[in-house]
DNA sequence: CGAGCGATTGACGTATATCAAAGAGAGTGG
DNA sequence: CCACTCTCTTTGATATACGTCAATCGCTCG
C-alpha cells in the first residue's frame, strides 16, 4: 500500500474516502472533517465481518484486501453474491431501514476496512444531501450488475458463465504482462463454483478445457494467465454479460 | 378499478402516487401539486413500453395491469428480470445517470401508467429531498429481492425455484378462497420458463408433479389453486427465498 | 364448430452433479 | 533441507435431471 506523501499517517483516514465515488463531490475540507469520524478495523483471512441475520449498524468500505458476501442456501450450499474489494462498500442496507443483514461477509485475505456508524452517516447525509444522489447512482450500478448476473444465470451454458467470470476478474484483478493478462484470483476453485452455482469439479474441468484450447494458462491455484481475450469473449457470448 | 369517492376524475392523478411508497412522506397538498405534472398512458397487451438500449427519460409507475421486463440473452432466449404490477415503478435508472435502459418492458395485459419526465422529477427531488431517501430504501428492497433470486438461481434444484415462484405469485396475485389460495398468473407457462431460465416443457412437467401430489390444482392456463401452502414451502426449501 | 396457439406428454441425448480416488501445493516439524 | 500431512484440485466413472425434438391434446376465440 502506497503512502500518501502529503499528510503522513493521518492520511490513512482519507484514503478510503478517495476510493469511493460516494464522496467524489466533496471538497478536501469536507473530506478532512469526515475522516475524523471514520473507524478502522483489520481482519484476517477467514474472519467474519458480520453474519446473515445480524443487525450491523455501519457502512463498511474495503480499504485493502477483498471479502466475499454469501448466503447459505436451503440445501446447505454457500451461494456467493458479491466479491467486494478495494473501494467497494457494503452494509448500506442497514443504514436506513430496520433490515437485518441479508448475507454473511467473510475476509478472503487480510483485510483493512473503514466504517461509519449509522449515526455519523446520518449526520453526513444531512450535511451533504448530494451524497444521497451518489448513493442512488451507486445502487443503480449495482442493480445493473445484478441484472446482468441474473441474466447470465438464466443462460443454460456453464461455459458462458465461467468465461464471463474470468473476464470480470481480468478487469478487476488483472495486470498486463507480455503474454496477456495475469489474473490474481480472489476466489479458489471452490469459491468460483459457489459464485456460479455449479460443482467444484465442473469449474476444474471447464478451466482445463480452456487451457487445452490455449485460451488461458493456469498458474497454480492463485492466478491464471489470460492469453486470448477475444476467444474468451466469444466463449462468453458476444454480448457483454456480467 | 375502484373510483375515488372524494375527488372524482381528477383523482386518477393521485391514485398512482398513493400506491408508491416513494411519496408516502408527503402531505396531501404536496401530492396535489405533484399530480399536476404526471403524464398518463395506456398500453395494450403485448405493447412495448420501451426497449433495451433506448434512452427513455421518465419514471414510470404502473397504475393498473402488469408488465414484464426482460433482456435477450446471447443465445436468443428471453430472460425475464421483473414482473411489475400495480404500484411498482421502473425507469428510474435513466433519471440520474446517462445510462440507457438495460431491458425491454412489455405489457402482459392492458396497462395504465403514470409517468414523470426526467425534468419534472428533478424538480421534485429538489423540492422534496426526503424522496431521495425513500428511493434508496426502495432500491435496497429491490436489491434484496434480486439477491434472493440470485441465490435461488444458484440452487441446483428446479423444483425449489418453481415452488418459490408460486409462493411469490401467491403473495402478489393470490386471493383467499375456501379451498386455499387462488393465484391469477401474470405469466404464461412460457413466461414462467423465461423467468426461471428453464424450458417451457420443464415447467409443465413440474407443475404436473405438484398437481399429482395434491399441492396445487391447475385451473386452465391462467390460474392455479394453491391447496397446500406448507407443502409448497417445504418444497421451496424451508428458508424463504424469493 | 373449426382454426390456431399454447400446453402437455413422450422419447431420447447430453451436460453436469455426484461419488471416488489420485495428484499437487503449501505449510509444518523433524 | 527434506519428508509428511493437510487441504485444495484434478481426473475418471457413473447416474440423472433437464433440454430438445416431435406429436398430441385442449383451450379460446372467432
Secondary structure layout:
The structure is a homodimer of 242-residue chains.
Chain A: H1 12-19, H2 28-35, E1 39-43, E2 48-50, E3 58-64, E4 66-72, E5 78-85, E6 89-90, H3 93-96, E7 104-107, E8 111-117, H4 118-127, H5 130-154, H6 158-173, E9 174-177, E10 180-184, H7 189-196, H8 200-212, E11 216-219, E12 223-226, H9 229-235
Antiparallel strand pairs in A: 1-8, 2-7, 3-6, 3-8, 4-5, 4-7, 9-10, 10-12, 11-12
The first copy, chain A, binds a DNA duplex (30 and 30 nucleotides) through helix 8.
Protein architecture, described:
The structure is a homodimer of 242-residue chains. The first copy, chain A, has helices at 12-19, 28-35, 93-96, 118-127, 130-154, 158-173, 189-196, 200-212, 229-235; strands spanning 39-43, 48-50, 58-64, 66-72, 78-85, 89-90, 104-107, 111-117, 174-177, 180-184, 216-219, 223-226. The two termini of chain A are 29 Å apart. Chain A contains 9 helices and 12 strands. A 4-stranded antiparallel β-sheet of chain A has the order 1-8-3-6. Chain A has a 4-stranded antiparallel β-sheet with strand order 2-7-4-5. Helices cover 41% and strands 25% of the residues of chain A. The radius of gyration of chain A is 19 Å and the shape is globular. In chain A, helix 6 (158-173) crosses helix 9 (229-235) and helix 7 packs across helix 8 (200-212). Chain A folds into 2 domains: 8-152, Sandwich (Jelly Rolls), CATH 2.60.120; 157-235, Orthogonal Bundle (Arc Repressor Mutant, subunit A). By secondary structure, chain A is an alpha+beta fold. Chains A and B meet through helix 5 of A and helix 5 of B. Chain A binds a DNA duplex (30 and 30 nucleotides) through helix 8. Chains A, B: Pfam families: cNMP_binding, HTH_Crp_2. Chains A, B: Residues 156-230 form the HTH crp-type domain. Chains A, B: Keywords: DNA-binding, Transcription, Transcription regulation.
Amino acid at each position: 500500500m502506497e503512502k500518501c506523501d502529503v499528510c503522513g499517517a493521518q492520511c490513512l483516514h482519507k484514503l478510503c474516502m478517495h476510493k469511493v465515488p460516494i464522496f467524489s463531490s466533496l471538497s478536501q475540507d469536507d473530506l478532512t472533517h469526515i475522516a475524523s469520524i471514520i473507524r478502522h478495523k483489520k481482519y484476517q483471512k477467514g474472519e467474519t465481518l458480520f453474519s446473515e441475520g445480524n443487525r450491523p449498524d455501519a457502512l463498511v468500505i474495503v480499504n485493502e484486501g477483498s471479502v466475499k458476501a454469501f448466503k447459505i442456501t436451503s440445501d446447505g450450499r454457500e451461494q456467493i453474491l458479491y466479491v467486494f474489494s478495494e473501494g467497494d462498500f457494503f452494509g448500506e442496507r442497514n443504514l436506513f431501514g430496520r433490515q437485518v443483514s441479508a448475507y454473511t461477509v467473510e475476509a478472503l485475505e487480510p483485510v483493512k476496512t473503514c466504517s461509519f456508524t449509522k449515526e455519523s452517516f446520518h449526520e453526513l447525509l444531512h450535511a451533504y444531501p448530494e451524497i444521497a444522489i451518489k448513493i442512488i447512482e451507486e445502487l443503480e450500478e449495482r442493480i445493473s450488475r445484478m441484472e446482468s448476473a441474473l441474466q447470465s444465470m438464466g443462460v443454460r451454458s456453464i461455459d458462458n458463465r465461467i468465461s464471463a467470470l474470468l473476464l470480470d476478474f481480468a478487469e478487476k484483478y488483472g495486470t498486463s504482462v507480455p503474454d496477456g493478462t495475469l489474473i490474481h484470483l480472489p476466489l479458489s476453485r471452490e469459491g468460483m463454483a459457489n459464485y456460479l452455482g455449479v460443482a467444484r469439479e465442473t469449474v476444474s474441468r471447464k478451466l482445463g478445457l480452456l487451457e487445452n484450447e490455449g485460451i488461458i494458462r493456469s498458474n497454480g491455484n492463485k492466478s491464471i494467465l489470460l492469453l486470448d481475450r477475444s476467444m474468451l469473449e466469444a466463449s462468453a457470448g458476444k454480448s457483454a454479460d456480467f
